[in-house]
Amino acid sequence: HRAAIVLAGPAASLIIMTPFVPIFWLAGDGSVLKLTSALMLTVFNVLSLANLIPFLQLDGYLLLSTCLGRPKLREEATHQFLKDVGLRRAPSPDSSGSKAVRIGDFAYGLISSSISGAFIGWGIFSWHLLLSRFTTSIRAWLAIAILSLSVAIVWTLIYRRRVAGKANASFPQTQPLLVKRDS
User: Fold this and answer.
1) Which of 12, 129, 141, 157 is the most buried (most CB within 10 A)?
2) Could you tell me the pTM of the whole model?
């Protein structure tokens, strides 16, 4: 059921695009309708296909993790990859898997980390190109650095709060004692 729900998004995108196909075929060459429909078909098809890439946490990842029965596939695979390259010493969350599973996790973690890094690099480069149109290159890099630092700080705070929340969840919560004061 979950796989069908995950596929509903890309399927809906394809259904939404169907009216643009006859418009593209019937519109005259060089007309605004033909150019608009070509743009819509290209952009939506590229986005739909990109949405199915199983290495970013989009629909393709959810479909793959559902089919494998591993809802935390990316987290576990990245942990295995970082452990195997020596960047993390703690045991992986599920180190009891077979050698084939560990090799698969390492490969998935490597590819996932590489694609994520390339995606982030492409985003930074694109933002630099955009910002450079309005200001100097150095100011554009400075703005990107400030924005990146801000995102890193917010992400760190959210991560720490989440980890602290998990730690606090393991302890029973007690209600404060109500003290009746005489006036």
Assistant:
1) 141
2) 0.62
Query: In this structure, what token pair is assigned to residue 73?
Result: 């596939």
**Distance, CA of 127 to CA of 37 (rounded, Å):** 27
Query: Tokens 């942990």 appear where?
Result: 79
Which residue in 160, 157, 162, 131 sits closest to 144, CA to CA?
A: 131
User: Are 18 and 44 spatial neighbours (Cβ–Cβ below 8 Å)?
Assistant: no
- Tell me the three state secondary structure of residue 83: helix
> d(Cα 160, Cα 22) in Å, to the nearest integer?
52
Tell me how long the chain is.
183
**44 vs 35: CA distance, rounded Å:** 14
Nearest partner of 62 among 7, 129, 131, judged by Cα:
7
In a 13 Å sphere around the CA of 171, the CA atoms on its Cβ side amount to: 7
- Other residues' Cβ atoms within 10 Å of the Cβ of residue 96: 9
CB atoms under 10 Å from CB of 78, counted, come to: 21
Residue with tokens 């929340």, as numbered in its chain: 165
Q: Would you give the DSSP letter of residue 136?
A: -
Q: Quick: pLDDT tens for 108-154.
A: 989 988 988 998 899 999 999 999 999 999 999 999 999 999 999 99
